[in-house]
Amino acid sequence: MKVSSSELSKIKKDLDIIRGEISRTVVGQSDVVNSLLRAILAKGHVLLEGVPGIAKTLIMRSLAHVTTSDYKRVQFTADLLPTDITGITAYDKNKGFYVVKGPVFTNFLLADEINRAPAKVQSSLLEAMQEKQVTIGTKTFNIEEPFFVLATQNPIESVAIFPLPEAQMDRFLFKLYINYPKIEDEQGILQKNITINAFSDFKIRSVISSKEIIKMQNLVKSIYLSPEIEKYIVRIVDATRFPDKYKLKNAKYIAWGGSPRASIGLYISSKADALLEGKNYVTPKNVKNVVHDVLRHRIILNYEGQAENIKTDDIVSEVLLKVPTP
Questions:
Q1: Which of 217, 251, 282 is the last residue of a domain?
Q2: CA distance 204 to 111
Q3: Domain that holds residue 276
Q4: For the residues 219-244, what does the mean pLDDT come to?
């Protein structure tokens, strides 16, 4: 089913309003906000890496507020248990056994500093992300849509951390970097926050409902993507697997390329990017807009590449130069 021009116009207007409301709380970082919106539209989850104090929590809380969605935050620590996320079966002498659902049962979940918790805790969240359901005791519960997880990492820390394995990283649709604000943006942050004592002081509006988010997510599937663009996506991922075939200068540093999940991620997120732009079809530009976010954590460097401090973003950029654009 083709997305009508009236639907596209309304969605673009709503998304522009969302970005406008978020800009009232978060100064700058528009690229990160756009990438988060793409991930939400594509029903994906995001791993966000950045130093403390650059509005990771504020962005997520603002996104939940403007979309009238439930929001919860979990601070990951070394003593966290899987049941602290999923929930427990408790007992009361008057009503017997009953279930207490954990914070994973929400629309927008911030998993703060996910690499500070042991692998067992990480996997309990990642399983919920993948399956959209959680088993507590003998009962299985579905997680209501929309369901979006933003997991954060602090690149500075090197003590008492549990790095995510490559297979777990692959569960995230995007990996994003959030950088320090520009000088002029930081001046705006100072001026804005001098009078702010609580989140409610930002006075941002809830402009759409969570049901409208679900409708947008379903419309993403109807965005047209031509066979030529499909082939372009597959070739991009193929170049990360067989770099010698595409004569990449950094080929010797690549241990493993993207899995089919990378191709699927490019496919759906390029559609989401087209919808974000108010279009009902995908162009090569839409693929290029999302390709670094989709592939940077899926290209695995060998020891030589790590020793040479090779950046996977540079490899992706070279792939775009080598693979012909349709």
A1: 217
A2: 23
A3: 223-322
A4: 96
Pairing of strands 254-256, 71-75: unpaired
pLDDT at 27 over 90: no
Q: Are residues 158 and 297 in the same domain?
A: no
Burial class of residue 214 in the structure, from the number of CB atoms within 10 Å of its CB (0-12 exposed, 13-18 middle, 19+ buried): middle
Exposed, middle or buried: residue 287 (CB in 10 Å: 0-12, 13-18, 19+)?
Answer: buried
Let me know: does 218 contact 226? Beta carbons within 8 Å: no
Q: What pLDDT shows up at residue 6?
A: 84
Chain segment 146-192, per-residue pLDDT in tens? 999 999 998 876 667 888 888 888 999 999 999 888 888 888 888 87
For residues 87, 91, 92 and 98, what is the CA-based torsion angle, rounded to 10 degrees?
50
**Domain check: are 132 and 59 in the same one?**
yes
**Which of these, 257, 250, 256, lies nearest to 305 by C-alpha position?**
250
Q: Which tokens is 130 given?
A: 């993948």
| pLDDT above 70 for 296 | yes
The separation between CA 178 and the C-alpha centre of its own chain, rounded to angstroms, equals 12
| Buried b or exposed e, range 164-174, using 16+ CB within 10 angstroms | beeebebbbbb
Query: pLDDT (tens digit, 9 = 90+) per residue, 86-129?
Result: 998 888 888 888 888 999 999 999 999 999 999 899 988 988 89
Residue 47 forms beta bridges with which residues?
A: 151, 175
Burial environment of residue 264 by CB neighbours within 10 A (0 to 12, 13 to 18, 19 or more): middle
**What is the DSSP track for 256-271?**
E---HHHHHHHHHHHH
* Residue 202 sits in the same domain as residue 305: no
pTM attached to this predicted model? 0.93
